[in-house]
Amino acid sequence: SELWKHGKACGTYHISHLDDPGHELFHIDGKLVDRYFFCKTLRGYHERHCFIPENIRDRYCQSLDKLPLLAGRKSLKTVVGEGYSEVGNDKTSVDRKNEYDDSILKPKMLAMAVPAFFLLSCAFFCPCFQARKREAAHTVLSKEPISMDSISSLEMNSASEKFPGSPMRVPPSPMRVPPSPSRFSMSPKLNRLGSIHLNMSQVARATNNFSPSLRIGEGGFGTVYKAELPDGQVVAIKRARKEHFSALHTEFRSEVELLAKIDHRNLVKHLGYVEKGMERLIITEYVPNGTLREHLDGLKGKILDFNQRLEISIDVAHGLTYLHLYAEKQIIHRDIKSSNILLTESYRAKVADFGFARLGDDSDKTHVSTKVKGTVGYLDPEYMRTYQLTTKSDVYSFGILLAEILTGRRPVDLKKPPDERVTIKWVFRKYNERRFAEMVDPLMNESINEEILVKMFDLAIRCAAPTRADRPDMKAVGEQLWGIRMDYLRSDRRG
Ligand SMILES: Nc1ncnc2c1ncn2[C@@H]1O[C@H](COP(=O)(O)OP(=O)(O)OP(=O)(O)O)[C@@H](O)[C@H]1O
Fold this sequence. Notes:
Blueprint: E1 13-16, E2 25-28, E3 31-33, H1 35-47, H2 54-65, H3 74-83, H4 93-100, H5 107-125, H6 127-131, H7 133-148, H8 153-162, H9 200-206, E4 215-218, E5 222-228, E6 234-240, H10 245-260, E7 270-276, E8 279-285, H11 292-296, H12 306-326, E9 331-332, E10 341-343, E11 349-351, E12 358-359, E13 367-368, H13 381-386, E14 388-389, H14 391-407, H15 423-432, H16 450-463, H17 474-494
Antiparallel strand pairs: 1-2, 2-3, 4-5, 5-6, 6-8, 7-8, 9-12, 10-11, 13-14
Helix pairs in contact: 1-2, 3-4, 3-5, 5-7, 12-14, 12-17, 14-16, 15-16, 16-17
Bound molecules: adenosine-5'-triphosphate.
Enzyme class: transferase
GO molecular function: ATP binding; protein serine/threonine kinase activity
Catalytic activity: L-seryl-[protein] + ATP = O-phospho-L-seryl-[protein] + ADP + H(+); L-threonyl-[protein] + ATP = O-phospho-L-threonyl-[protein] + ADP + H(+)
C-alpha cells in the first residue's frame, strides 16, 4: 500500500508494508531501494526544501538522521552529494572522503567546490539538466582525483590490456575504465579513498606481523588476516600473494577500484588500501560469522533454517541489484558463489570478493571478454560460449546459489551418483517429477509448504536458464523473493 507520494519536482516515493514491522519495501521513483538509500534521498530532498512528512522521517530514518554532518564541511558535502544524489549513488568518492577525512577543508577542495556549486545550481534550475544529472556528476567527480594526484602510467595502460582493439571486441569506453589514477598512485601512502589510514608498521602491528594465528582464509588472490586496529576496530586485511603479484596486478586494482565505490549493507565494505613496495593490501570490514558454504556444510554448529536461507537469498539479491543498477557504474560481480557470501552474527549476508569483478557498461549491455573468469559450476553457459558478459551471468550464478541454499548440495558434487552430480540438472529433473520435498536440504529438518518450495525452485531454475533472455533481472528476483517470504511467513503462522 502506498503511504505517500510527493510532487514530481522532488521525485516520488512510496513504502509498501509487509506483515511484519521492519520489513517494509521502500521505493523511490518506482525503483525498489533499501532503507538506507531511501533515507539518504529523503534527507537530500529535505535539504532542497521539499516537503517530507515528519512521521516518515521519524519512523524510518531516525537513526540515519543522527549521522553527523560535520560542521564546516556541510556545504561542500551537500553540494557535491546533492548533484550525485541519484538513488543508490549515495556515497561518492568525494562524499566518502569528506565524511572520513578529519582535516579541515583544503584550499584545493574549496577551489573545486565553487565550480561544483555553480554547476549544480544550474542543475537544480534547468529541467533538461535533471535527466543528465548522473552524467554531470561523473564529470565533476572524475576530475577530482586528477587534481589531487599525478597520473599513473600503469593505470592508463590497463584499458588497452583488457580490451584489445580486435573487431570482435567492444572498444575501450571511458565509462568502463574510469580515469581515477589517484586510487592507484604508486605513492607509499595509503590511498586517500579509504577511511582507514595505516602505514606498514601499523599494519604489521595490527596483524602481528601477518601472524598465522590471525589468518582467516586463503583465496586465489592471497591470504586474508583478521586484524585489530589501535582504536579497537576489527577488520579483514587481504594480502596479495607475492608470487602471483604481477598476474594479480590488474585484478587487484580492479578490486580496489570497485570496492571503493560501494556502500551497501549486503556488500562487504571497503575500508582502506595500502600500497608499499611489493605489498598490496586491501582493508575491508570484518564479517564475523564465516561463509555461507561453511554454514551449509554444518561447520558452524547451528544449521540454517528455511527463513534464514530465504533472508540470505534476499540479501544477496539486494547486493547484486545494487551492483547492477545503482552503483556509480554498473558492476558485474562474476564470481557469485557460496564461499563468497559472508554472514554476520545475525545471519545477514554480505557479498564479498570483487577480485573478479569488472565494470559493466549501461550503454552497450554486453562486453566481450578476453578470458572467461568465474568458478566452475556457477559459470553462465552463454558467457562461456560467447565470452559476452552481462548482468545475467550473475543471475545465472545466483540461480545456482539458490539451488545450493535450498538443497545444501554443492553445484557440482562428484561423490554423488552420475545423474545427481550436477545439482541444477538434478533439481530440474526432480522439479518436473514434482518431488519437491526430496530436494530440500536433509539437514534442515523442517517441513515447508509445497507452494513455497515450488516458487523457490521455480525461481532458481528460471535464474539458471541456459539462455540469458529467459532469466529475470536481479531486481525482479529480489522482489519475487520478498513475495515468497511474505507467503512463507503467512503459511508459517497458519501452520
Ligand atoms: N571480510 C572478511 N571477513 C571475514 N572473513 C573473510 C573476509 N574476507 C575473506 N574472509 C575469509 O577468507 C577466506 C578467503 O577469502 P578470499 O576472498 O580471499 O577467497 P575465496 O573467495 O574463498 O576464494 P577466491 O578468491 O579464490 O574465489 C574466505 O573464504 C573467508 O573465510
